[in-house]
Amino acid sequence: MTANAEFDAVRAKLVDHPLYAQITTEDRLRIFMKHHVFAVWDFFTLLKRLQTEVTTVTLPWQPRGHAEHGRFIMEIVLAEETDEDIGGGYISHFELYRRAMAEIGADTEPIDAFLAALDSGVGPMTALKDERIPSSVREFVGHTLDVALNGAPHEVASSFCHGRENLLPDVFSEVRANVDDVLANAPVFRHYLDRHIALDHDEHGPLALRLLAALCDGDPRREAEADAVSVEAIKARTGLWDGVLAEFDAA
């Protein structure tokens, strides 16, 4: 799976994206976070879809078989939804990111308005139409939601694996290397990056690969579909980064 030139090319383009070297000021970091927080949120949409596929999350509980699949995903859920907080306690990575935004003064109005709309019963695709949400964010989250809601389990796992867990250590390492000076006043964001780099590289990335392989189960059709989704996930992320760069240029 993903042993193809197109995937390698789009992945390399994303890892070498010009965005990382352009996050040179706190103002630009704030813009980046305003966009990126939506990717932090919609990550959980993919994760929860996979959780519903390999574990029972409704009543009455029933055994699903393949406990190893459930174990893989629940280990990821544990760390992503209830990770160790700075100074003690536990926190989701989304809430940690939202705190990091507040710490540096990033604009939280778009994500807060989006979540408020969801709380009031508005569907996510409708909530994305809020004019405060950048169009590139709207397209990225729309793509994620489409995969999470309509994709086959192996397609969701491919997006989760190759568009998130097996990709982000490389991406976040690039961000970390280029914005180290800017992070002096953003210790929570620095902690977020370091935590993700460590978890995804050492634990979650390998777990996601194993889950994807199990769901494809050696079926050539599933593997081809998973490959196609992985390419689209990378392209969607590239579009998100392009949107951040465009706002840098407009600022």
Automatic annotation (TrEMBL):
<protein>
    <submittedName>
        <fullName>Antimetabolite toxin biosynthesis protein MgoB</fullName>
    </submittedName>
</protein>
<dbReference type="InterPro" id="IPR016084">
    <property type="entry name" value="Haem_Oase-like_multi-hlx"/>
</dbReference>
<dbReference type="Pfam" id="PF11251">
    <property type="entry name" value="DUF3050"/>
</dbReference>
<dbReference type="InterPro" id="IPR024423">
    <property type="entry name" value="DUF3050"/>
</dbReference>
